[in-house]
Design brief:
Blueprint (H helix, E strand, L loop, with lengths): L1 E4 L2 E4 L2 H13 L8 E7 L14 E11 L2 E7 L4 H35 L1
Antiparallel strand pairs: 1-2, 3-4, 4-5
Helix pairs in contact: 1-2
This protein binds zinc ion.
Length: 115
């Protein structure tokens, strides 16, 4: 990542990169941790066509792993776009966490070497 320093462009230091990632993290306010899955299902009405193979759907669900295992939450069609954006933000958050881990490990080693 490049930062504009006065008129010159300079490579960001690890500390500057970390600050930028932390700021980006704070902007991911719609994040959803999980993935979107489409499901077809049958209903409780005995005479419904869904029991003859024409199942209802596709319906959208957010699949997320929590403390009790995987959980699927129904997402109404009107919220599908927002959910997709949230899942993309969740993916970005996980990438940022990996980048921060690498940066912090490098900074820890650098600081230990200086001491
Ligand atoms: Zn049905």
């Amino acid at each position: 990542m490049l930062y504009t320093m006065g008129m010159k462009r300079k490579k960001a230091t690890p500390t500057e990169k970390r600050d930028a990632l932390l700021a980006e993290m704070a902007s991911l306010r719609g994040l959803l941790n999980g993935s979107l899955v489409q499901r077809y299902s049958t209903c409780a009405r005995k005479n419904c066509a869904c029991h003859t193979g024409r199942r209802h759907g596709p319906r959208l669900y957010l699949a997320a792993t929590g403390e009790g295992g995987q959980r699927q939450t129904y997402i109404p069609a009107a919220l599908a776009e927002r959910a997709a954006e949230g899942v993309a933000q969740g993916r970005r958050l996980r990438a940022i966490v990996r980048e921060l881990t690498a940066l912090n490990l490098a900074l820890m080693r650098e600081e230990a070497g200086r001491g």
